[in-house]
Amino acid sequence: MINQLTQEKSTAENIKSKTTRKNVISALEKIIQYLKLFKQTPPNGLAVFAGNVSEFEGKEDIRLWAIEPPEKLETKIYWCDQVFVLDPLKEMVKEKDVYGLLVLDAKEATIGLLKGKKIIVKKKMDSTVPSKTVKGGMCLHKTTLIKLANGQEVPINKIRRGEEILCFDFSDGKVKSGIVENIFKRRVEKAKKIFYEKGSLIASDDHLIFVKKEKIEEKFVKDLEKQDMVFVLEGNEVKEAKIKNTSEVFVEASTFFYDLEVSPFGNYFANGLLVHNSQGRYDRLREDAINEFLTKVGEISSKIFLEEKVSGVLIGGPGPVKEKLAKEDYLNYQIKNKIIAVKDVGYADEYGLEELVKRSEDALEQTEIFKEKKLLNDFFVRLREKENVVVGLEKTLKALEVGAIEELIISENFEFVRKSLACKNGHKKVAILKKDEKAYCEICGEEMKVESEEEIFDEIVEKAEELGAKVHIVSDDTEEGKGFKSMGGIGAILRFKIE
Fold this sequence. Notes:
By secondary structure, the protein is an alpha+beta fold. It has three domains: about 1-95, eRF1 domain 1 (Translation, Eukaryotic Peptide Chain Release Factor Subunit 1, Chain A, 2-Layer Sandwich); about 95-365, Hedgehog/Intein (Hint) domain (Endonuclease - Pi-scei, Chain A, domain 1, Beta Complex), CATH 2.170.16; about 370-495, CATH 3.30.1330.30. It has eleven helices and 29 strands. It has helices at about 1-10, 20-35, 85-95, 280-310, 320-325, 335, 350-360, 370-385, 395-400, 455-465, 480-485; strands at about 45-50, 60-65, 100-105, 110-115, 120-125, 140, 145, 155, 165-170, 175-185, 190-195, 200-205, 210, 215-220, 230-235, 235-250, 255-265, 265-270, 275, 310-315, 340-345, 390, 405-410, 415-420, 430-435, 440, 445-455, 470-475, 490-495. Strands 12-11-16-15-13-14 form a six-stranded antiparallel β-sheet, with no helix packed on it. Strands 5-4-3-20-21 form a five-stranded mixed β-sheet, sandwiched between helices. Strand 13 (about 210) and strand 14 (about 215-220) form a beta hairpin. Helix 8 crosses helix 11 (about 480-485). The longest helix is centred in the middle third of the chain and has 31 residues, at about 280-310. The protein is elongated. The two termini are about 50 Å apart.
């Protein structure tokens, strides 16, 4: 490599730009001198980077970085460019196991990935699935009269399953009899009284009424308008009638509303008005909408998970929809075979992804995020019980100075740097501060400007390793990591107590 770089140095003499030529030659010379320090190539190879990192045009600041990789380098690269080629090294530190995350309910779904310690949101989806009617809706007041096939009128709360009632066959325009398959009993929150020619009806806002426009349509009670044409029963014939008015009705909490599911025509006459057997149809429409939504979720999540080559898939959500997606054939068979856990979680958004990871710790106990969360939780317990631990920059540096650290924990986004500071009156000092932290002169009280700034992360880590301490670099992507960072982002488990 030294011979090759020496040749490259000769070639660089032909670079037209004086500045670029000078930078390239200086960088090559720095690398060559560094390589002469080695008697042989390190076991896993060596990656060396050098170049002018000065932020000021025309000023030279040639730096060199050398890395002995954690795994064997399989490629030999010489590259001269404006940026360093880091891909071979990035692959080595990349978390080998990537997990697919999917949280969903009938209203929304969020697809994500667990990469190492990071939860990455890939896609958020909303559904058009109508809400359940558990609290009410799709129903008629208990006093509503239903026309039986024998001509009698019976209150809807007295109707029994299997009874024959009058219905309307739209295919031939005739009144016929149908069978009551199911009876639904609900409490409702909102209802209206509908006034139409020949009568009135109290119904929940969500009940469907047949309306004649250019063609026969269905309208929710809450959407009915004055002059809408509806269908009423007169004798054995169905005639058109106009809506005169609608008004809000106070509904007592103890009052039940009812609905019928009727086959084969899917309608019946309530106080003479032709209405849809809404509940049964509504449930079927909802089921169809859920199937459509799950198909879409399955296709998109399968595509993402296949592209990312996930090692496993975690599925969660607050209701039964998650089990339906996991058990049935919505997911690609390759992805379905990788499902390692289906968990109950309270949300179907990005918070649901975090909760899913927490609840899946039994399945993820070997992943980086779990190890990190366990490490920090153990640390917090020790801190609470005042065991041999310190937290915060000042106490940790003191422990490092006296060689008391057994395990150093430091945030990967460590915020402290060493700053050379000066005020306008010429007073100077060097201090370790947060990157965005302001400093004031202790002599004159003026705000101090930063003349230079130096990272101390590597310095702290290297010193800890030299003293034989184990170093844990933790992220701030988890709840525990955020909490640790708020304490200063640095702490340690000690070999012995210090004052």
